[in-house]
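Hey, I'm writing a tutorial for new members on how sequence and structure tokens pair up, and I'd like a real worked example in the thread rather than a made-up one. If someone can provide the structure for the chain below, I'll link this post from the tutorial.
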Amino acid sequence: MRLGQTSAVYLVSKVLGSVLGFLATVYFARVLGEDVLGQYALVLAVVTWLGIGGKVGINRAITKRISEGEEPEEFTGAGLVVMGAMMTIVAVAVIVFREQVNAYVGVPVAEFVVLLLFVTLYKSLINASLKGNHLVHVYAILSTGRQGTRAVAQIGLVALFGLGLSGMLWGYAIGYLVTATIGLWVLGLRPSMPGKEHIVSLFEYAKYAWLGSIRGESFETVDIAVLGFFVTQGLVGIYSVAWSIGKFLDIFGSAVSNTLFPEMSKVSAENDANAIAGLAEDGLTYAGLILIPGLVGALVIGDRLLQIYGDSFVAGTDVLAILVLALLIYTYNKQLLSILNAIDRPDLAFRANGVFIVVNVILNVILIWQIGWVGAAVATALSAAVGLVLAYYYASSYVPFSLPVAEITRQWIAAIGMGATVYVVRQLTETHWLAEYNAAFVVALVSVGAAVYFGTLFVISRTFRTTVTDNLPFDLPFVPN
């Protein structure tokens, strides 16, 4: 697989953005505490779920239709009309039921929910157009800019004006508005008045794709949303921090999925089954490249990673490991569902997504009720596994791809070697030289682990070695092909 400029830029941009988000979260955790982080996570969960009602898969339909190369301005205009109307209805509902919204979060936030709904609409429309125009690398750069702008605005409002939760929410809105506007300028795309056929075409795709939107948001927020009914805001805050660490590790898998979907969609339109299969195998080969060692690392030093946020966050150690496992399973699921959507079989993705969502919601309610907040992570992992099985069944029925078992096994071998090395270094250092917690030591452990993992994989995997050498601007001496 030659990742190329697009996926490389996407990956680097997302890493930079996630680092900025990590530093901001550490600051808020130490300054504001887990309760405010919990309230913030609940607001975003509410916005996410209500936002689905304002998009109903139209954003995915826009990406698909624009990627096909015909009448992009008209399809963008159709998306703006439909999404704008639906989001307005949702916003009115928030105002009508603002007391219930405020009671759920624990503080008055209904007006912020309305504000964030509309900036989310704006962002979604621009992102869908960028992806549809094969500008995933631009989308990634703007995503990094959004995270950076958001972090700077949030820290400034909290540190300089003492706004607390409101400062975090205002900063969130500012980050979306600024970067979405830049994206509109980069596109140079002006929505045109759509015809009836454009709106109908979007709905033809969206009638299946909307459940895909719910699938993604269900995986990322249904556990937090359900936790809001059962546990304290502090535990929600700790859970959200563990989740953010897991999402950082999922950057590469998301980069592969977002980069390959427009390409698979394009070759699908050309009826090139072999090309689709090749892209599918590439996606599955590299989906777990970071998450596999991330899972091993979470088991070995997860407690130390969480302690960076504060001593109270160490309580989420078990949750962190389970969530990383869930993300690993889910990232393979995403690659398979991308195949179905790319070959214009959203109906099959619809079925797989429907089962996943139902199982996810039911398991979250039952397991959180029975075993507490750890049950949310377990439910997320189990539902991801169910979704993976169904997605594989459908995708393998239409695309003749092979599972890259050998390459994934090599990644696990390198990860286990990494885990053993980091465990030994940690035990020796903490036993003989380091009596107290030290954040610099945690960074050192992570660096050692990364060096061992990638070094080992480079040696034992010809596929990985070829990918690296093909995408470097220079030749590596003494490196066999």
